[in-house]
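tokens incoming
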């Protein structure tokens, strides 16, 4: 590969790292063509961009990026695929789903919510991280709960007052 081609790939990877908030580094080696094709299709369906990259080019792109990815350098060995995503937990859920029928893909590391996760044992934690939209929905539900309680109390209180007045008027 020519030096110009490598520089172009490094620039593209750097731009992708800067533009995408979350990515997973996985090992999909030893997957046959059919399983790799199915993995790519599932990634496409879930809006995940899957790239197979050379470790040296990825490391240089990480060094050029705006964020400090130095904690990931040590795992850049062997076969590495990178999954870029806008939602941090979707690749984790996809990997969990695929692992029910196979031992691949193996999670090497992930950069999610400005944190670095290293090792395949982190897959359950990554899959359970709530996305930004899920957290917003939880906050809205929590904010609505007291309002609903107040409205409910006011409505039942009005009915109680009517009931008390009716009872008092019937006594006389």
């Amino acid at each position: 590969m020519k030096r110009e081609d490598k520089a172009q790939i490094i620039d593209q990877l750097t731009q992708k790292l800067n533009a995408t908030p979350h990515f997973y580094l996985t090992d999909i080696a030893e997957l046959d063509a059919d399983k790799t094709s199915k993995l790519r299709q599932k990634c496409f369906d879930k809006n995940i961009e899957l790239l197979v990259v050379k470790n040296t080019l990825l490391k240089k792109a990480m060094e050029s990026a705006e964020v400090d990815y130095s904690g990931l350098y040590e795992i850049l060995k062997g076969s590495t695929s990178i999954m870029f995503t806008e939602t941090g937990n979707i690749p984790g859920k996809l990997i969990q789903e695929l692992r029910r029928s196979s031992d691949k893909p193996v999670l090497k590391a992930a950069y999610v919510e400005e944190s670095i996760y290293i090792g395949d044992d982190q897959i359950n934690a990554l899959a359970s991280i709530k996305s930004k939209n899920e957290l917003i929905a939880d906050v809205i539900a929590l904010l609505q709960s007291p309002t609903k309680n107040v409205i409910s109390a006011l409505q039942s209180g009005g009915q109680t007052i009517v009931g008390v007045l009716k009872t008092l008027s019937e006594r006389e």
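note: The mean pLDDT is 86.
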